[in-house]
Amino acid sequence: xxxxxxxxxxxxxxxxxxxxxxxxxxxxxxxxxxxxxxxxxxxxxxxxxxxxxxxxxxxxxxxxxxxxxxxxxxxxxxxxxxxxxxxxxxxxxxxxxxxxxxxxxxxxxxxxxxxxxxxxxxxx
Length: 124
Prior knowledge:
By secondary structure, the chain is mainly α.
């Protein structure tokens, strides 16, 4: 049986990821976006005289991606709203209720014997 004043219990599945894991993930996303930016600038330089429309799109991507990458990298820790609550509340046990008190005028409920009802059912 559990003590009522015992320590609170927490679920490990509701815990947030470690700070080092969060920083590592943000660094990885930043490096990937900067690699895409570098490739798009190189693609713009290579395609400038061949396919100018594609080169302009690649150059625009190369100019806009650093700003987006910095905002994503500095966004901070993500909220894990999809995880269950980390705290398990103590279950409340209902108290047993006492039977209703009878007033002087009330009598005890009749206890029926199943004999008569079963006999009529068996006959039909």
